[in-house]
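Ticket reopened. Same input as before:
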Amino acid sequence: MTPQNPAQRTDPPMPRPLTIARLLLALVLGVSAPALRAQDGPLRIEITEGVIEPMPVAVPGFVAETAGADAIAADVTRVVASDLVGTGLFREIPREAHIARVTSFDAPVAYGDWRAINTEALVTGAVGLAGDGRIVVKFRLFDVVSGQPLGDGLQFAGPPGQWRRMAHKVADAVYSRITGEGGYFDSRVVFVAESGPKNERLKQLAIMDYDGANLAYLTDTSTIVLAPRFSPDGARVLFTTFETGFPRIKLLDINSGIARPLAEQPGTMTFAPRFSPNGATVVYSLEQGGNTDLWAMEIGTGRATRLTNAPSIETAPSFSPDGARIVFESDRSGTQQLYIMPAGGGEAERISFGQGRYGTPVWSPRGDMIAFTKQNAGRFHIGVMRTDGSEERLLTASFLDEGPTWAPNGRVIMFTRATAGATGEPALYSVDISGRNLRRVPTPAAASDPAWSPLLP
Amino acid sequence: MKIQTTALILIGALALSACSGPNRFGFGGAGAGGAGAGAAGGPAGIDMSALGDPSNPDSLAHFQQVVGDRVLFSVDQSVLSDEARSTLLGQAAWLNARPAVNVIVEGHADEQGTREYNLALGARRANSVQEFLISQGVAANRIRTVSYGKERPIEVCSDEACYAQNRRAVTVLTAGLGS
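Engineering reply: fixed in the latest deploy. New output:
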C-alpha cells in the first residue's frame, strides 16, 4: 500500500496537502467507509459516487518522433488518458486548457504552466517507428505539485498492431506509480456474448481487451456456453458447454482456438470449473443423481478426486492465490452460503452469516478478500468480505447482479448486471471495491459471465 | 393392429429426431421449453416432429397436452407437489405402455438465482422426476436427465407469474438413447 515515490518526497514546495497522498488516503478510507453502512443499514444500499476528488492529470499529445507516427501517437495518447480517467481516480485536463506545448519528449517541463491550470500529474510521451518495423512508445510521469519526475521514463517496443497494449502498459505504470497499486489496463476479459430473445438466447464465448477493444469470438452460437475462466497464464480458458446436449467442461487454447473436453466421469453434468493457481488442476462441480459435489481433476492425467460428499449443492469453487484453500458455495445449511475448506477437501468452515443467500465466491488475487453475489429481499448485490467473513460490504444493488471477477490488482470487480422483463438483457459492469466508479463495460451486444485475465506479460 | 401402426409411426418420428446429436431433443417441439433451441442453437436449428392428434393416445400431442409433459416446482424446491405426482403417474403409465420410448427429463429454474446454483437446482428437479418415474416402474435406462438452469425460460416476464412456469421439469420424448 505504501507508495514509493511520494514517500521519498520530503519537502513539498507547495503548502497545500499532497494530493497523491490524499488520493491514497481516500482509497484506504473508501475501503472502510461503506463497511459500516453495510453492517448497520438496510440492504438496499445507495452507492455514493464522487466522494473523492479525482486527481487532475494532463496527457498532452504524445510526440510523433518519426514521419508517419502522428496517427498512432494520437491513438496511444487517447488510450492512456482513457485508461486513467476510467478509473474514476483521475480527471483529464482538456487539451484546450493546456498552456505549455510539448513538442519534444526531452524538453524541460514547464511546471509553472501546468500548475497554472491546476495540473497535479503530467504524462508526456512519444511514439516513433523503429527501423525493424516495430513501434516504440516512451513516457515520463511528473509530479507537477512538487515539480519533479515521478520515477524514470520508460519505453515499450512492439509490433504496430500491439499499440493498444503499449498504451495500456504506459497507463498501468502511471497508475501504479501514483496509487502504489498494481495496474490492470493491459489485461483481457473473456465473457459470454448473447443475442436473440430471452427464451431462445444464443450464446458464444468472446474475448476482448479490458476496455472492450479488440473483440473476437472464440466459439459460434450453435450451443449454450457458460462461465469461461482464464488459466493463470491467460492462455487457456475453461468453460461449460451444452454441445453434447449435456453440460460438460471444455478447455480452450486461445491462440489455436482448439477446445477439448476434460476427461469424462460418471454422472450427467460437470460445470463451474476454475483453475488452481499453478494451472495444473481444475476444481469443478459434478452432478450425479441430482446431487452436486466438488471435485478436482489434474488436467494432465485426467485423474479426478472428490472434494465434498454431501447431499447438498456444492458449487462455484475458487482457489486461494496460494492454492491451499478453496472457497465455495453450499446450501447444506438450507440456503446458499459461503464456505472455505482445504484444497484437498475436508472440514469446511462457513464464512457468510448475513441475511440472504450468498453465492459465486471468488478469491481476490491479493488473497485478502472474497467477492460474492448476494441475494436478499428480491435484490442482487455484488459484495466483498474478508476471508474470515468479516467486514462484509455490498458494492452494488440491482434486479440481478451476479458473477464477480477480479481485476488483476484486486481493486476492481467486473460482473454481470441483467435488466428485468421480457426485453431484459445482461451487460458487463465494473465497480471499485470501494463501491465507487460503477461503469458499464462496452460490448457490442448483450454480455454475461465475465472473467478478467491476469495482467498480460 | 391400429395401435401397432401408430406406435411405429411415433417411433419412426422419434428415430428421425434422434438421428443427430443436437436434434435428439427435438421431439420436444414447441412445448419443451426451448430444449430444441438450446441444443440445436442457431436460427437454422429448427426441429420438425409430427405432433399428431391429441385424441390419439400414441401421439406426441397427447403426451404433451393430455398426459402433461411438465411439472412445476416451488421457489428453490425440488419436492414434487401432489399435482406433480398426479401428472407423473400419468407419464409413467403412458411410458410403461410404450417401452420403446425413452425420455430426457429437463430441469429448469427461474431467473432469480445465480447461474451455477440454478444448474444444480435444475438437476435436482430433473432427478426428482426421474426417481418418481422409476418408482412407478419405468426402467432407469430409459430416462436421462439434463439441467438447463435458468438458461431456457419459457416465460420471459420478471414476475412470479412467469417464474412459476419456468421452475419446471419437462419430460421430453426421445428414442434410442442408451438402448
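Residues 357 and 375 of chain A are 5 Å apart (CA to CA). The domain at 188-452 of chain A is CATH 2.120.10.30 (Neuraminidase). Please confirm and we'll close it.
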